[in-house]
Automatic annotation (TrEMBL):
<dbReference type="GO" id="GO:0005739">
    <property type="term" value="C:mitochondrion"/>
</dbReference>
<comment type="similarity">
    <text>Belongs to the acyl-CoA dehydrogenase family.</text>
</comment>
<dbReference type="Pfam" id="PF00441">
    <property type="entry name" value="Acyl-CoA_dh_1"/>
</dbReference>
<dbReference type="InterPro" id="IPR009100">
    <property type="entry name" value="AcylCoA_DH/oxidase_NM_dom_sf"/>
</dbReference>
<dbReference type="InterPro" id="IPR046373">
    <property type="entry name" value="Acyl-CoA_Oxase/DH_mid-dom_sf"/>
</dbReference>
<keyword id="KW-0285">Flavoprotein</keyword>
<dbReference type="GO" id="GO:0050660">
    <property type="term" value="F:flavin adenine dinucleotide binding"/>
</dbReference>
<dbReference type="InterPro" id="IPR013786">
    <property type="entry name" value="AcylCoA_DH/ox_N"/>
</dbReference>
<dbReference type="InterPro" id="IPR009075">
    <property type="entry name" value="AcylCo_DH/oxidase_C"/>
</dbReference>
<dbReference type="InterPro" id="IPR052547">
    <property type="entry name" value="Mito_Isobutyryl-CoADH"/>
</dbReference>
<keyword id="KW-0274">FAD</keyword>
<dbReference type="InterPro" id="IPR037069">
    <property type="entry name" value="AcylCoA_DH/ox_N_sf"/>
</dbReference>
<feature type="domain" description="Acyl-CoA oxidase/dehydrogenase middle">
    <location>
        <begin position="170"/>
        <end position="248"/>
    </location>
</feature>
<dbReference type="Pfam" id="PF02770">
    <property type="entry name" value="Acyl-CoA_dh_M"/>
</dbReference>
<dbReference type="InterPro" id="IPR036250">
    <property type="entry name" value="AcylCo_DH-like_C"/>
</dbReference>
<keyword id="KW-0560">Oxidoreductase</keyword>
<dbReference type="InterPro" id="IPR006091">
    <property type="entry name" value="Acyl-CoA_Oxase/DH_mid-dom"/>
</dbReference>
Length: 395
């Protein structure tokens, strides 16, 4: 029964390996020809992740779904068991333009929006959540250098990160400072033309297998204002790695695949001479799961749109999306496992892996700080505003 869910995917056309930029500006006619199978797959389905997307966005999604189905899903169980960092597959993803999705085009980025990146990460996650989660971190590293680095740094690092000739990691967490990352203690002291870095980082995705590390270090006062980012290359430094061992859009992909598999399983599995899906309780449960999935997608895409628009509400919306979608999607995956009964617990069934991979998204990047952020900064502001409206003298 390995990768049983693969069988539940309908075939929807040959895999496309053109770069994503080539996909921009497809005529509507060509797009329809390319995507008719995808449309068939989700015909009249409320959980259709392409609802509300433009033609171009649906095409990016199709390419990512094809890749998830053909290249990721068949391997995800093996990679999990063997703790594989799938270098070749990641490089093929870069060939599609997924190495630097929302990074500017002049140094090889794909120049897409955050919304489009979210759609792509969600689609890829239906094939393998943890590989896609790493890819999302790599994309963040490329974007950080492109957005905040000097021209020299952009020219040096962005092309090789976009092609995934080099892999990136983001190093914030320390053994003693997780949620309280603003207190980090890794130091960077200037010594002539160099900085000498001293300290330990923990839980770094890809750490040991990657080449370019964005390391958050203390160069100044206590608290967040005394922290700088330094690019460290593995090849010319003395870094010790021990115990080798990822986000919100990825949670959506895991939940999507889980809903589909639970719906399929409960149609096929009979108990008391009747398919599980004929029980009203099961139907209510599936409806709850679909509702959680769709509402999570709405808030994640709303947050991505706010980022694209550089809206001042973006940080708050992103925090809310993280808080809401990671909890809801984990619950969806957990419910899908429950609907599989004992089979859901077996490694042969992909639902357990979606649930495990989704669980960590509730931990990553912390939770209390999100709640604190939006409640302190935004909610109180808007409540104050409402309070002012409510208490404003009526004319
Ligand atoms: C698979 C995986 C991949 C990761 N990848 C990366 C990476 O690539 N780069 C990176 O920098 N980090 C990475 N991390 C680290 C991750 O961001 C941290 O684990 C996370 O920030 C939580 O920190 P912590 O584990 O130290 O937990 P702690 O900070 O010790 O928190 C423990 C618990 O206490 C709660 N808590 C903490 N403070 C408070 C408070 N004030 N009030 C109430 N509750 C509180 C937390 O919500 C949590 O439930 C990764 C972690 C994992 C598991």
């Amino acid at each position: 029964m390995a990768n049983k869910f693969v069988a539940s995917w309908r075939s929807f056309g040959p895999s496309s390996f053109q770069g994503i930029r080539h996909l921009r500006g497809l005529t509507a006619q060509k797009w329809k020809a390319n995507t008719r199978h995808t449309a068939c797959r989700y015909q009249s389905s409320i959980v259709d992740p392409s609802l509300g997307l433009t033609d171009d966005q649906m095409e990016f999604q199709r390419v990512a779904l094809d890749f998830a189905k053909n290249e990721l899903a068949p391997e995800m169980q093996k990679w999990d068991q063997e703790e594989t960092f799938p270098v070749d597959v990641l490089k093929r993803l870069a060939g599609l333009g997924f190495g630097a999705i929302y990074t500017k085009e002049d140094y090889g980025g794909s120049g897409l929006s955050r919304l489009e990146a979210s759609v792509i990460f969600e689609a890829l996650s239906t094939g393998c959540v943890s590989t896609t989660a790493y890819l999302s971190i790599h994309n963040m590293v490329a974007w950080m250098i492109d957005e905040f680095g000097s021209e020299e740094l952009r020219e040096k690092y962005v092309p090789t990160l976009a092609s995934m000739e080099k892999f990136g990691s983001y190093c914030l967490t320390e053994p003693g400072y997780g949620s309280d990352a603003a207190s980090l203690s890794t130091s960077a002291k200037r010594d002539g033309d160099y900085y000498i870095l001293n300290g330990s980082k923990a839980f770094i995705s890809g750490g040991g297998d990657t080449d370019v590390y964005i390391v958050m270090v203390r160069t100044g006062q206590e608290g967040p204002k005394g922290i700088s980012s330094v690019i460290v290359e593995k090849r010319n430094t003395r870094i010790e790695f021990w115990q080798e061992r990822e986000k919100t859009s990825c949670s959506l992909g895991a939940a999507q695949a889980s809903v589909e598999q639970a719906a399929e399983h409960t149609k096929v599995r009979k108990q008391f001479d009747t398919p599980l899906a004929d029980n009203q309780h099961i139907q209510f449960k599936l409806a709850d799961m679909a509702t959680s999935l769709v509402t999570s997608r709405l808030i994640v895409r709303q947050a991505a749109r706010a980022l694209d628009a550089k809206s001042p509400e973006a940080p708050t919306l992103c925090s809310m999306a993280k808080l809401f979608a990671t909890d809801q999607c984990f619950q969806v995956c957990n419910d899908a496992l429950q609907l599989h009964g004992g089979y859901g617990y077996l490694k042969d069934y992909a639902v357990q892996q979606y649930m495990r991979d989704c669980r960590v998204h509730q931990i990553l990047e912390g939770k209390p700080q999100h709640i604190a952020y939006y409640s302190r900064q935004s909610l109180s502001l808007s409540l104050n505003k409402r309070w002012r409206y409510a208490t404003a003298p009526r004319s």
